[in-house]
Amino acid sequence: MAFDQVKPLKGYELVMEQIKSKIRNGEFAPGTKLSSVVDLAASFGVGRSTIREALSALKAMGLVEIRQGGGTYVSAELPKEQAPGEGNSLFASAESIQELLEVRKILETGCASLAARNRSAEDLEAIGHELKLMELYLNDEAKGEEADVRFHLKLAEATHNSLLIPMMESLSQRLHDSMRESRKLWFYGERAEATRLLREHSDIFEAVREQDETRAHEAMRTHLLKVENVVRRALSESNT
């Protein structure tokens, strides 16, 4: 008689399942603010990192919203429960994100270096404007994401290459999608992560402003490699 192997749940998965159950059975109603990470850690008898991983997973499922500096809330509109056998859509999307990141590494590192060479004062102002918006919306993930996408598009425009610009524009919606999904895979509820992301974009901007092509190329590559590592780690964990 054959049986499927049973994999022991990790600590964060046990926490996640308990909170998920309370959300699904209505004990935690939509819009409810959950206890702080510190209080949840004490309640479950686990470390804060375990709670953060559990909340990150719940966010990926669309069950909670994490507001920087404002706590964690049950989503106002809960997604439908996944039917057995449907698979893990999050990690299916992660594989798609990884493919897009491979394309972005090829395309956007070139855009960054070419923008450093060809950018005008007007281009620099436009890119800098989106960077300021990213800083302004550190606590608003949706608006920060939109400014992030525009930053990359403005960078492409600064190349003044008639082929690169439409190629990046054609990827615009995919960029939106990949950023949204990669943020689900990463715990972006912590301000430190949003600040780190802003710093990486600032490094790209400074290299373009100083017209340092090599530095611009490497700054973009470093940024995309960090995002790619998050996706790879998520895929690796889903297969263990």
UniProtKB/TrEMBL annotation:
Q: Which SMART domains match?
A: FCD, HTH_GNTR
Q: What is this protein called?
A: FadR family transcriptional regulator
InterPro entries, A to Z: GntR_C, TF_FadR/GntR_C, Tscrpt_reg_HTH_GntR, WH-like_DNA-bd_sf, WH_DNA-bd_sf
Query: Pfam families from the xrefs?
Result: FCD, GntR
Domain annotation HTH gntR-type: ranges: 9-77
Cite the PANTHER family for this sequence: TRANSCRIPTIONAL REGULATOR, GNTR FAMILY (PTHR43537), UXU OPERON TRANSCRIPTIONAL REGULATOR (PTHR43537:SF5)
Which keywords does this chain's UniProt record carry? Answer: DNA-binding, Transcription, Transcription regulation
Protein species of origin? Paenibacillus oceani
Q: Answer yes or no on keyword Protease.
A: no
Molecular-function GO term, any one: DNA binding
Record has Transcription regulation as a keyword:
yes
Q: Which residues form a coiled coil?
A: none
